[in-house]
Design goal:
It is built from three helices and 14 strands. By secondary structure, the protein is α+β, with helices and mostly antiparallel strands. About 35% of the residues are buried.
């Protein structure tokens, strides 16, 4: 499944502050937000101090009325070609809000896509971790905005798995409500439980780039000369991610 494992890291926070013009520093400290407080809007972006950001970035803006209409175009410019994306606010407003924030913050610039899968029922390229390990994120998490109208996967007679169709753009996660920065791009119909937020689609020119990456396969190892899951053999770098 396109999911990442978030490490349990020991975090030592060094905070320097100057109380200028405050007659009661203790009162000021008490009124300051906790480093674990979520944002006040409906998206409730929540800091994860035990899982610090792979690259420094602030919490996204969280307006009372999160934009929930319209589509936004973002282009991932990679070393192997452009991957234009169309984000859909109506499908996942909080996810789009976060993705655009990370794009504006240059969080995705100069990062690699660390995982390619080539299973018959799971065909995705996973990106969005500046550490390149598959365990990194933005230092915050937020709730799922799960799809409810996906068709059942024909390969699953139980009906539990649904079709994440070719061209889908979705969030990777490490369990319920753990969305961060990692996302996956579907290059062939995949069968997944509907536990992954879909927030847009890949334009045809982007699919051509994605097909080229997929055709290169997964990087072989001495233990497995033909792996189905691992780093793409064609190293894929996101040079820039920009709204267009």
């Amino acid at each position: 499944m396109p999911k990442y494992r978030l490490p349990a890291l020991l975090v030592i926070a060094l905070v320097a502050g100057l109380g200028l013009g405050l007659s009661d520093p203790a009162a000021a400290s008490a009124s300051a937000p906790s480093p674990t407080d979520p944002t006040a809007g409906p998206c409730a972006y929540t800091p994860t101090p035990d899982e610090p950001a792979a690259r420094p970035v602030r919490l996204p803006p969280d307006p009372r009325h999160t934009p929930e209409h319209g589509k936004v175009r973002v282009v991932l410019r990679t070393n192997l070609g452009a991957i234009p994306l169309e984000l859909d606010r109506s499908e996942a407003p909080c996810t789009v809000q976060s993705f655009l924030h990370l794009t504006r913050s240059r969080f995705y610039d100069r990062t690699i896509c660390h995982r390619l899968t080539a299973y018959p029922t799971l065909s995705v390229l996973q990106c969005g971790d500046p550490s390149g390990t598959g365990e990194g994120g933005p230092g915050y998490r937020y709730r799922d905005e799960l799809p409810t109208n996906l068709p059942p996967a024909p390969t699953d007679p139980t009906g539990a798995r649904k079709v994440y169709a070719r061209g889908v753009l979705a969030m990777a996660n490490a369990g319920p409500d753990t969305n961060g920065s990692q996302f996956f791009l579907v290059y062939a119909n995949s069968a997944l439980r509907p536990n992954y937020t879909i927030f847009g689609e890949i334009a045809p020119t982007g699919l051509r780039t994605l097909d080229r990456i997929a055709a290169g396969g997964v990087t072989p190892t001495p233990e497995d000369p033909a792996p189905l899951d691992g780093p793409p053999a064609l190293t894929t770098k996101i040079l820039t991610a920009r709204r267009h």
